[in-house]
Amino acid sequence: MYTAGTAGEARPVKVTARPRAAVIAIVYHSGYGHTARQAQAVRAGVDDVHGAEALLLTTDEAQQRWEDLCAVQAIIFGAPTYVGAGSASFKAFQEASSNAIMAQGYLWKDKIAAGFTNSGSRSGDKLSTLLQMALFAAQHGMHWVSLDLPPANCSSTGSETDLNRLGFWLGAAAQSNVDQGPDLAPPESDLATARHLGRRVATTTLQFALGREAAPAATGG
Ligand SMILES: Cc1cc2nc3c(=O)[nH]c(=O)nc-3n(C[C@H](O)[C@H](O)[C@H](O)COP(=O)(O)O)c2cc1C
């Protein structure tokens, strides 16, 4: 049974050989707490979907939990955008996965993947971070899931409360004013967008699981 606590509080879990529920890990870094709020919203979205469970881990925790990350069906990556890319702590996790996962036989191959990022500016070069995550997933042979929301807040009827108000397709984006703490930023619309990504990844993961049961040969399983 997987038990996800609040950010940074995920507890050790017993991994069953073939869990009936789809387990979706959320692996994120947050220097100052804003991206942690986004990660918690993604987790809430996963937990909205019947048959899906979330496992929330920081990038530091994840590097102690490689076996658990091999047992899950999907991994959603999250990082703040620092200096136009994912934060250094997130990058350290990426590099550690090279030895721990790739070199051990591409152990994440065919898992579902998705990503989210948060930064101070509305753009802030967040796309660079999402691309970094999508390339990372591709290098692991994972299946990247996009954000299926039209870009919003781009017409005379748009507003700050729109889902996907920042207009990204590759993953969920959030913007946090740099003079506000994580109690106030990112705004609810960005958190709702993150929840949407969690629901979408959980649903897609369940669909893939059914497809694999129906056509195991097609996946080599
Ligand atoms: C070292 C550093 C670099 C940053 N670079 C960017 C940047 O390139 N683009 C941007 O929009 N915001 C940038 N920011 C602002 C952060 O992305 C923003 O404060 C974010 O909410 C921090 O998330 P966190 O609280 O999860 O660490 C930077 C912040 C730091 C500390």
TrEMBL record:
SUPFAM superfamilies: Flavoproteins. Keywords: Flavoprotein, FMN. Pfam families: FMN_red (PF03358). Its cofactor is FMN. The keyword Flavoprotein applies. The keyword Flavoprotein applies. Residues 24-174 form the Flavodoxin-like domain. This is Flavodoxin family protein. It comes from Nitratireductor rhodophyticola.
